[in-house]
Amino acid sequence: MRSTEPLPLHHSWPLYDLRERLASVTLDDRTARSDAALAERGLGLWHCDLATQKLQWTAGIFDMFGLERDGEISRPRAVALYTPETREPMERLRAYAIRHRRGFTLDVDIDRADGGRCAIRLIGAPVIVGNAVIGLHGVKQVLPKGAAASRELDPRIFNLL
Fold it and tell me: Which InterPro entries does its entry note (predicted)?
């Protein structure tokens, strides 16, 4: 499994911290609202409807997983592409986020459908309507080999979904 230090990259956090968790990458408005521009920068947005388990991904996430853009992807298929070492912690943090209405951040490894491997920073938060958690949404960011990735992202990118 990927290193869990520093701890802020492998934990849950309160929803009031969402803007702080997503705030330091400087994106101009055009980039923040462009699926293609985000994909070029190794970023993608995701949404999971908890009632149906249906996933919505922007182009960048299809690229990270080595899948054809704009194709249908089931949650079980996507989860199967996480390496065994990162799948279990991801599922545990996801369940905790839903149960306790908290966000989470975790670095994971993906065994891409096209045969490669990709390291990704996964940031997620529950979607709450009334008193119910109805979904999860978030950002995935490619972690470049040997480069320090940004710890936070611009909240404007959530406007795409």
Answer: PAS-like_dom_sf (IPR035965)
Instruction: Give how far Cα 51 sits from Cα of 4, 47, 55, 100, 101, Å.
Output: 31, 12, 11, 17, 16
> What's the half-sphere exposure (Cβ side, CA atoms, 13 Å) at 18?
18
Tokens found for residue 16: 């009031």
Sorted by sequence, the CB contacts under 8 Å of residue 5 that are 6+ apart come out as none
The residue among 69, 138, 68, 57 whose CA lies nearest residue 102 is 138
pLDDT one-digit tens code per residue, 54-111: 999 999 999 999 999 978 899 999 999 999 989 998 999 999 999 999 988 888 899 9
Residue with tokens 């330091």: 24
The domain limits of the chain are 14-145
CATH class for the domain made up of 14-145:
alpha beta
- H or E element at residue 140: strand 132-142
